[in-house]
Amino acid sequence: MKKEIRRIMVTGALGQIGTELTVALRNRYGAENVVATDCRPLPSETLRDSGPFQTADVTDADALDQVIRKYGIDTVFHLAAILSAVGEQKPQLCWRINMEGTLNILELGVRHEMARVIIPSSIAVWGKGAPLENTPQESVLKPATMYGVTKVCGELLADYYVRRFGLDARGLRYPGLISFETPPGGGTTDYAVAIFYAAVTEGKFTCFVREDTVLPMMYMPDAIRGTIELAEADFARLRHHADFNLAAMSFSAGELAACIRKHVPAFEVTYEPDYHQAIADSWPRSIDDSAARDEWGWKPDWDLESMTRDMLDHLRARLANKGASAARPS
Ligand code: VAH
Fold first, then answer.
1. Which of 72, 200, 294, 306 has the highest CB neighbour number within 10 Å of its CB?
2. Which domain holds residue 235?
3. Count of structural domains, the chain
4. Is residue 179 within 6 Å of ligand 1 at its C-beta?
């Protein structure tokens, strides 16, 4: 019988996923049962007053072990990572943070006989040789980026720890994630977040990928729900572990701009592709997530229209409170 999730540690808790996942886990498991950790010294305003926070560098196994022992942690959601764009600027740092961190978490998961270890992956695992449309669960994994290399290695390591040590490790290949709570840092899909802030504050945006660049994307509420649903799924039903494809929608930068323009008619976007373009071109345009749907009942709730409306509503409300000159709504 698989162990129950009771006391959770989140790494990278101040990041784009980590912030919202920590809040969702605290609401579901009790605030005092979810310890937020990050290499940065201070908790964010969102997390500071909602539960325990510890500074911990994921490359420091002893520091992580101390947090695990102090709080009696039995489950880790390991979100700390260097993303694709920064990873191409600093490939050695990306390898060190992503791989030393993941190995430390897996080793500690075994040492402390943990209930679950969640090791996220990404659509960045794909590259040359993988189908660009409806990319299947089983496919060639030849990533073009150091970030993608670390994600393939993370999947392989986690699956090894499942087979070799009986650790219950699980993970999702996240698409680009869009959210309004915490700005992302260093990703190639970050344009799809920055464009919303620009629509509400400037009324114009310069996009670093071509207008026709299509990528798989997901609204953060779907990603958070999917992460928790996978963590809570019956292990006996899972034929995959740390490499589930996860999908919701795919759209081009131009389609996203057009959808925003339905709410901000005067919104202007210019396209000036830079080094992000080569990364985006190496990734699929759409992915097949039938394994997640079959093995643990995955189903997305949000699409481009509903996400766009919700993002603009939240950003306008927040920026209006701060007095920013929000673009006039339609
Ligand atoms: C990145 N947002 O752009 C991340 C993600 C699918 C991309 O892994 O690097």
1. 200
2. 8-176+219-245
3. 2
4. no
**How far is the C-alpha of 283 from the C-alpha of 276, rounded, in Å?**
11
Positions annotated as catalytic residues are: 147
- pTM, 2 dp: 0.94
Q: How many Å lie between the centroid of ligand 1 and the Cα of residue 161?
A: 25
Q: Is the CB of 284 under 6 A from ligand 1?
A: no
The pLDDT of residue 330: 35
For 160, list phi and psi in degrees, rounded to 5.
-60, -45
Q: Within 10 Å of residue 66's Cβ, how many Cβ atoms?
A: 13
| Average pLDDT per 10 consecutive residues for the chain, totaling 330 residues | 90 95 98 96 79 96 98 98 95 98 98 98 96 97 97 98 98 97 87 96 96 98 98 96 98 98 97 96 97 98 98 92 48
User: Counting atoms of ligand 1 from 1, which one is nearest the CA of 177?
Assistant: 2
Q: Which residue has the tokens 């694709």?
A: 84
Residues 170 and 253 in one domain: no
Residue 323 confidence (pLDDT):
56
Query: 10 pairs with which residues across the strands?
Result: 36, 77
Torsions phi, psi of 135, nearest 5?
-55, 125
> Is residue 205 domain-shared with residue 225, that is, in the same domain?
no
Residues 65 and 189 reside in one and the same domain: no
Residue 328 lies in a domain: no
**Do 203 and 64 belong together in one domain?**
no
Ligand 1 pocket check for 176: Cβ under 6 Å = yes
Nearest CA to ligand 1 atom 3: 187
Q: Is 192 found in the same domain as 57?
A: no
